[in-house]
Write a structure and sequence with these properties.
With 178 residues, this protein is mainly beta. It has helices at residues 72-76, 105-110, 153-162; strands spanning 3-15, 21-22, 25-26, 29-36, 43-44, 49-51, 55-57, 65-71, 81-88, 96-104, 119-126, 133-148. InterPro entries: C2_domain_sf.
Amino acid sequence: MDCRRCFNINMKQALDVNNTKILFFKKPIYAMVSIVGSSPYKQRTPVAKYIGNNKLIWGTTTSSAMRFYVEESKLQQNHLVLMIQLMCKRIFGSDKVIGEICVPLKELYDNYNGINNISYSTHEVVNPCDDRGHGYLQFSYEFDATLKKKEGAIANSLMQTQSHVTPSAPSLEQYLIT
């Protein structure tokens, strides 16, 4: 059976991050979050708000909350890495990466306080161009209980969709592996 665990992350604040100003204007900054070694999709936060000169905060807890489902076996074998990229919105051209953090998900899991409790973590933001520290990023996270994938779930969903298929369509039973 394939077991998955739900990983929730919520961006809190970024402190002393460089490259956030152009002359007198503050750049719009957001975070792009992905889990390397798992599903290939990324999730994006809304644009952070500036508090003072060098502090960025994300709005309410629901606006920057993200959920990922990770395989339990890959988590325990330390094959998953949480990657958070701080991005600067540009008017012309693609958005620019101004900093990133990479944290093994196993490290977060080992430091986690228990099921359905929220833990906080702060990591140094590194500029991918020069590998130097450029401030700190704080986020909260939690792991939910393990979900077990039923072996027959795919077969059942295929059989249910067959009832909605026109009679001229070929049978889906030939595609099921028994």
